[in-house]
Amino acid sequence: MDIQKPLLKLYYDICSPYSWVAFESLIRYETILDIKLELLPVSIGHIFKATKNTPNVMQMPQKSVYFPKDLKLVGSYWGIPLTPPKDFKKEFVDNSTLNPQRFLTALDLYAHEYLIDASRKYWLKAWSRHETFFGIDTIEEFFN
């Protein structure tokens, strides 16, 4: 009798550093946890809009005081080069991650073997190097 591994689905958007942490930790422990991991890129902006919600950092100004400290601590613990942006609203709220998330979804559907690497490249651009990541030109960079 063949026993199937439990399926764990991770819905993620590259605008969330905590999605990156979940992504890396679940990939790292997939074998140990004996699970089948399914990675599903989503647009958190659309989720916020549909639920009439706003990002936590935007709701509570006091969170923005602890956010950089938390990112540094979490990044250090997991070995992920997380650095907070100088202006979260400008980098993530004013710019949509729709293009990157659509691209990652297309990879998931048609070239799944590139999904993990492309997701990491987006997170590195967004949360380590603070480079522009939301335009079509970023997608083209992945192929050069």
From TrEMBL:
InterPro entries given in the database record: DSBA-like_thioredoxin_dom, GST_Kappa/NadH, Thioredoxin-like_sf
Domain of life according to the entry: Eukaryota
A Gene Ontology biological process term: glutathione metabolic process
GO molecular function: glutathione peroxidase activity; glutathione transferase activity
One Pfam assignment: DSBA
GO cellular component: mitochondrion; peroxisome
Occurrences of domain DSBA-like thioredoxin (ranges): 9-142
Record's protein name: Glutathione S-transferase kappa 1
